[in-house]
Specification:
- The protein has about 190 residues and is an alpha+beta fold.
- The chain has 2 domains: about 70 residues, Arc Repressor Mutant, subunit A, CATH 1.10.10; about 80 residues, no CATH class.
- The chain is built from 7 helices and 7 strands.
- Strand 4 and strand 5 form a beta hairpin.
- The longest helix has 20 residues.
- The protein is globular, with a radius of gyration of 17 Å.
- The N and C termini lie far apart (about 35 Å).
């Protein structure tokens, strides 16, 4: 699932989220240690850091899991995570579409707009930032939506990356993380 149909890589957050959906069984509750053990026992390349010859830390795995909770893909209770998708997507494109749809809904709540207006709102916000003579970084777009705090800002960025992996996305990133319209030109 590494590459999009156009040959570019999917965003890291999309790849890791899709891998977690693949690894976890629907309805089973997993504690963090169990998920980390599952990642290692399945030799998940997505969570393996080749340059360090080690798997990513359990704390970083927890952040990915909490993001999936924020998207409504997982639920968390008493320190255990449960995959609640019904039915569980099996194909890569189905996972990509599901994650992009969940990211769109998440961003809609962050931006206080209907899900169908998320791309337009992001483009409007980036255009307003550009008109001020500044680069429309994702952090500045998040700030324009009053998203603040390390985790909230990271989840916002991850949701945008995931949304942009949607095959029908009308936005793209230029000189990451600058938001541009789908044709690669900066909004103004």
């Amino acid at each position: 699932m590494e590459f999009r149909p156009d040959g570019r890589k999917y965003a890291r957050i999309t790849r890791k989220s899709a891998e977690l959906i693949t690894l976890l069984r629907r309805g089973n509750a997993y504690e963090l240690d169990s998920i980390v053990a599952l990642i290692e026992s399945q030799k998940s390349e997505e969570f393996f850091l080749k340059n360090l010859a080690a798997y990513i830390s359990s704390e970083r795995v927890r952040e990915y899991l909490r993001f999936l909770v924020a998207l409504g893909v997982l639920s968390e209770a008493d320190g255990a995570f449960t995959l609640g998708l019904n039915p569980k997507p099996t194909s890569d494109i189905h996972k990509i579409q599901l994650l992009a749809d969940r990211a769109r809904r998440f961003l809609a709540t962050q931006l206080n707009v209907p899900p169908a207006s998320v791309a337009t709102d992001l483009q409007t916000r980036s255009g307003a930032i550009l008109r001020k003579g500044e680069l429309a970084t994702l952090d500045k777009v998040a700030a324009s939506a009053s998203v603040s705090g390390n985790r909230a800002e990271e989840f916002f960025r991850w949701a945008v990356y995931m949304l942009l992996d949607d095959p029908g996305a009308t936005l793209s990133l230029s000189r990451s993380p600058v938001l541009v319209s789908g044709n690669g030109k900066r909004s103004a």
